[in-house]
């Protein structure tokens, strides 16, 4: 078969990424060569492809669900916010500009061509392309110039389904209203709906589904149940507000408590997911000094705005508390932007243009921001274990002392590295946690048999199972192959127009 589908949503975090990944996994099981696609992604969680391109982490996970290598074509435009008003624009895996919302308008038409060329390339290489929308297609203030939702669907003649999150409440109004706010030409491509995160009696939902079909002339292709413990690499910090990975009973006698600082521009916080999968490791995100009191390990994660987030740490009192605890011997790990914050000083004439800024002074390093972003997938060794990782940063750290640690260094109970994904390496993670536990004085033993890659694969299989069991897959296949049905009614605020 050949075809494509757009998975849109009523809101951000409605489940577009999950449904896209589930469809990719299910289609791959059927022997169909499938690829994910997100025309424009706004996310601070990104990853580096094998050929050195930066794309959204969700698309990398979706590619894994499809059983294919990720490429820049799968996410041709990535926006990385550095403040409330400005974002770095990454095109085909390389940063090209820093713009605000008004300045971005000038880029829309050239980016439209890039997006359509990438989608064309994927459709030529794969049997099916599952496209994920961005936010909601009913953001009518952004419809002009849209390249990620109905603008993409119209340009490529893609049928679309709309995903709604019933756990938030108001799902029928959200689904109906999403269609009703679209123009007739956009509505003609909206084929139906998927309801996500349902928990309860199916018979109570059925009358609503019937009325939704009567009001819109469109079916619901399936209702995905609430799945306890389901986790994927999320796109942005909205994912931190919902359930993450549940702590597992300890392998040894004690747990290990990890406090991950959550600054405003936190990026690649998926680094700590591998810690949360370890039995006996309890991971929580914190924003105040008091929450560090009982932590056995403090993690400073990546940041898209290192200097600004360092200022936030100081304003909140977190910086002083981290320094105090570290000097008392409390383990601290800095990753990428967090590693940069641990330096003695930071010279930033690129990201914040703040010049020289004093760091936390916990590691013997000096950081200078370079105009060219480092994007690579390094391999190294630590604790006698091989480590595969990826790097995404402008700040370059010059190490002036301490012990070598991956590409960074260690000084006493403080570690720092620019390598994302290092903790996903099972042998290294266990050795690091054992060292942390000894430094922290905890009777904690890492489990010997936890494989993070296998856990991720198992979760992707769960998504494939949900699609297979709870969606009308025959109808979805027809939609992918034949496009949106002709003659779908136009939905107006008062009901379908006749």
Features:
498 residues, alpha/beta, Rossmann fold, 2 domains, seven-stranded mixed beta sheet, six-stranded parallel beta sheet, 15 helices, 31% helix, 29% strand, globular, CobQ/CobB/MinD/ParA_Nub-bd_dom, glutamine amidotransferase
How many helix segments? 15
Overall pLDDT metric: 93
The assigned CATH architecture of the largest domain is 3-Layer(aba) Sandwich
Q: Compute the number of structural domains.
A: 2
Which CATH class of the largest domain is shown?
Alpha Beta
**How many β-strands, per DSSP?**
29
Query: By CATH's scheme, which homologous superfamily of the largest domain applies?
Result: P-loop containing nucleotide triphosphate hydrolases
Reported for the largest beta sheet, the result is: 7 strands, mixed
Unreliable residue runs: none
Helix percentage: 25-40%
InterPro entries: Class_I_gatase-like, CobQ/CobB/MinD/ParA_Nub-bd_dom, CobQ_GATase1, CobQ_N, CobQ_synth, GATase_3, P-loop_NTPase
Pathway: Cofactor biosynthesis; adenosylcobalamin biosynthesis
Family: Belongs to the CobB/CobQ family. CobQ subfamily.
Keywords: Cobalamin biosynthesis, Glutamine amidotransferase
């Amino acid at each position: 078969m050949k075809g494509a589908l757009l998975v849109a949503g009523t809101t951000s975090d409605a489940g577009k990424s999950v449904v896209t990944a589930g469809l990719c996994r299910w289609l791959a099981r059927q022997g169909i060569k499938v690829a994910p696609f997100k025309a424009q992604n706004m996310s601070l969680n990104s990853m580096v492809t094998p050929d050195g391109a930066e794309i959204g982490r969700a698309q990398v996970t979706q590619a894994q669900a499809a059983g294919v290598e990720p490429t820049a074509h799968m996410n041709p435009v990535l926006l990385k916010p550095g403040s409330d008003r400005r974002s770095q624009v990454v095109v085909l895996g390389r940063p090209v500009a820093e713009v605000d919302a008004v300045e971005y308008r000038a880029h829309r038409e050239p980016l439209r061509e890039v997006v359509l060329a990438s989608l064309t390339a994927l459709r030529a290489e794969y049997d099916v392309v599952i496209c994920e929308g961005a936010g909601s297609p009913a953001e009518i203030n952004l419809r002009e110039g849209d390249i990620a939702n109905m603008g993409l669907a119209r340009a490529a003649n893609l049928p679309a389904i709309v995903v709604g999150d019933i756990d938030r409440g108001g799902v029928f109004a959200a689904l109906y209203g999403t269609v009703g706010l679209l123009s007739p030409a956009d509505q003609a491509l909206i084929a139906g709906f998927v309801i996500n995160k349902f928990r309860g009696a199916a018979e109570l939902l059925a009358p609503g589904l019937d009325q939704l079909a009567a009001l819109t002339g469109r079916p619901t292709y399936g209702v995905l149940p609430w799945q306890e413990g389901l986790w994927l690499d999320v796109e942005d910090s909205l994912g931190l507000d919902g359930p993450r990975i549940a702590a597992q009973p300890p392998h040894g006698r004690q747990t290990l408590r990890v406090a991950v600082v959550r600054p405003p521009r936190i990026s690649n916080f998926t680094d700590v997911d591998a810690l949360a999968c370890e039995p006996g490791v309890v991971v929580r995100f914190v924003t105040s000094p008091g929450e560090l009191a009982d932590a056995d390990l403090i993690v400073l994660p990546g940041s898209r705005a290192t200097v600004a987030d360092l200022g936030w740490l100081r304003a909140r009192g977190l910086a002083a508390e981290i320094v105090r605890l570290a000097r008392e011997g409390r383990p601290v790990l800095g990753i990428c932007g967090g590693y940069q914050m641990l330096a003695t000083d930071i010279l930033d004439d690129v990201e914040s243009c703040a010049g020289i800024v004093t760091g936390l002074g916990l590691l013997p390093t000096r950081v200078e921001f370079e105009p060219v972003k480092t994007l690579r997938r390094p391999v190294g060794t630590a604790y006698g274990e091989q480590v595969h990782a990826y790097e995404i940063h402008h700040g370059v750290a010059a190490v002036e002392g301490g012990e070598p640690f991956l590409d960074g260094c260690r000084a006493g109970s403080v570690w720092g590295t620019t390598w994302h994904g290092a903790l996903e390496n099972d042998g290294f993670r266990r050795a690091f946690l054992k060292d942390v536990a000894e430094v922290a004085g905890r009777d904690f033993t890492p489990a010997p048999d936890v494989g993070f890659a296998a856990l991720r694969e198992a979760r992707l299989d769960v998504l494939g199972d949900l699609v297979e069991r709870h969606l009308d897959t025959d109808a979805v296949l027809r939609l992918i192959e034949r496009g949106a049905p002709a003659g779908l009614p136009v939905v107006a605020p008062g009901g379908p127009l006749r």
